[in-house]
Amino acid sequence: MHWADVAASKIKDNAVISTAISPSGEIHVGNMREVLTGELVYRALKSAGKSAKFYYEADDMDPLRKVPAGIDQSFSKYIGTPLFKTPAPDGKHKSWSDQFIEPFIETMKLVGANPVFLRTHELYEQGLFNESIKVAMEKRELIASILSEVSGKQIEGEYYPFNVECESCGRIDKTVIESYEWPVAKYRCENCGNTGRRDIRNGNGKLPWRVEWPAKWLVLGVTVEPFGKDHASAGGSYDTGKRIAKEVFGIDPPFPIVYEWIHLRGMGAMHSSKGILVRAIDMVRMVPPEVLRFLIARNNPERHIEMDTGRGLISLVNEYDIYERIYFGKEQPNDTERLEDLKRIYELSQVNGIPESMPVQVSFSHIINLVQLKKDINEIMASLKRSGYDLSGDLSHLMRRINAAKFWLENFAPDEFKIKILEVPPSMDINENQKNFLSYLKQRLNTDLTPDEVNKIIHESCKETVGDQKSCFNLLYQIFLGKDSGPRLGFLFTSLDRNFIIERLNHYLK
Ligand SMILES: [Zn+2]
């Protein structure tokens, strides 16, 4: 059974799934795993006939902790300010959090995840946390003892589970509560020295993370929550959250789904703060969204995923195609016992329902060549038709793939995948055998040919002259591309203007 179905079988009806992020920097593809894990379980619950709600919260009440790499360090003056009140680094968005969350909301839509979107600061402002703040303050000694027992952190002096926002400097991370009588706290700011009295309800501050998390379970009625493995470590925030949920708020903690990180090939786990990342929005532009869903769906959450934006991207799309062929019965899996699992992975990868029949499959590597050698979509389609593809059905999959290939080539593709036809013939020493090869080839290229026919002609011409196939191919790549390899020559030659090819060959036959 698929892991999402296994989870769904253990989750009670009327589930409430919560996913969230602290929008403190670029939202990368690693963060996609949280919302897609939630979405897959949401779908699995629906398939199991259970009812479910699905939330995504921007924890924008969190303070800015660090100015990430790549952003003007002058923003460090806002450290400690809630993210929804911090100015946007690009000067265009309403706030720091909006700048990063807005493209992510778009990305979620593109991959077919449609959670109810909430801004945590609004929940505070609407007073939804008021009751949990009151309870937490009343039971603050119990919370302090849970925190020190579970996490091992000793709490010195009086503990108040609330961070008041300083009315003078705006920081939320530097105030200390000196005394309180519900709902007013007397506080002192260690940043600016301000002291004051403040009503702690309705967004004038926030619960610290380890208390806020279980309070959110209470406020939203959360019963299922995917979260990263950092929260799941022994003594971590899930361990403290579980006990606070039960002992302080009197609720059951949600069913946990712990997921591993997505590593960027050769660079380790992605971090917004260190600038090691591929933005989620870029990822969904360079692979079709169904392929991104496939990446998450086919890996158990506890397995780490290695993301490769180079050559590995092509293999990923190829694997998706295999699953698609298996789903539509055009290919058998090596392990026939896994057939149902593989089909379920394909189903869960679809953005909007399952296609009625198998979409036309053009390999990603072929599309990568086509978009570089053809001048527009009409030429691409004409070339595919000539190669025998049936283009009569729904072409939306193909179009998404074409757009993804273009974006990938412009932004992430390694040079080896870029085809650049040399405008001027490179100067080369050509021996007699090679000349014979080129001349032989030239004579036979004189009619309309298919890519396979061209390949055959190259092989035959080489056999009659130079003999060594590899050196013949290298020679042609050098003459046209200035490198030793490239796309299949049959395809390359049928994509280029024939007169251009003849002229280029003639240059070396003088
Ligand atoms: Zn202050």
Task: Briefly say what this structure is.
With 510 residues, the chain is mostly helical. The chain folds into three domains: 1-162 and 200-262, Rossmann fold; 310-416, Arc Repressor Mutant, subunit A, CATH 1.10.10.770; 432-507, Arc Repressor Mutant, subunit A (Orthogonal Bundle). The protein is built from 21 helices and 13 strands.
Strand tally is 13
Strand content: 5-15%
- The number of helices is 21
Secondary-structure arrangement, i.e. CATH architecture of the largest domain? 3-Layer(aba) Sandwich
Bound molecules: zinc ion
Q: What profile does the largest beta sheet have?
A: 3 strands, parallel
Rough shape? elongated
Which topology of the largest domain does CATH recognise?
Rossmann fold
Q: Structural class from helices and strands? A: mainly alpha
CATH superfamily of the largest domain: HUPs
Number of domains: 3
Which residues form runs of ≥5 with pLDDT under 50?
A: none
Provide the residue-averaged pLDDT: 94
Can you offer a commentary on this structure?
- The longest helix has 19 residues, at 29-47.
- Helix 11 (289-297) crosses helix 13 (339-349) and helix 12 crosses helix 13 (339-349).
- The strands form 5 sheets. A 3-stranded parallel sheet has the order 1-2-3. The protein has a 3-stranded antiparallel sheet with strand order 5-6-7, with no helix packed on it.
- The protein folds into 3 domains: 1-162 and 200-262, 3-Layer(aba) Sandwich (Rossmann fold), CATH 3.40.50; 310-416, Orthogonal Bundle (Arc Repressor Mutant, subunit A); 432-507, Orthogonal Bundle (Arc Repressor Mutant, subunit A).
- The model has no long low-confidence stretch (mean pLDDT 94).
- It starts with a helix and ends with a helix.
- By secondary structure, it is mainly alpha-helical.
- It has helices at 3-10, 29-47, 96-110, 120-125, 130-138, 140-151, 209-220, 229-232, 237-248, 280-286, 289-297, 311-327, 339-349, 364-373, 377-386, 396-411, 432-444, 451-464, 469-481, 489-495, 498-507, and strands spanning 15-21, 52-58, 116-119, 163-164, 175-181, 184-189, 195-199, 205-206, 224-228, 255-259, 262-264, 268-269, 305-307.
- Helix 2 (29-47) links the parallel strand 1 and strand 2.
- Bound molecules: zinc ion.
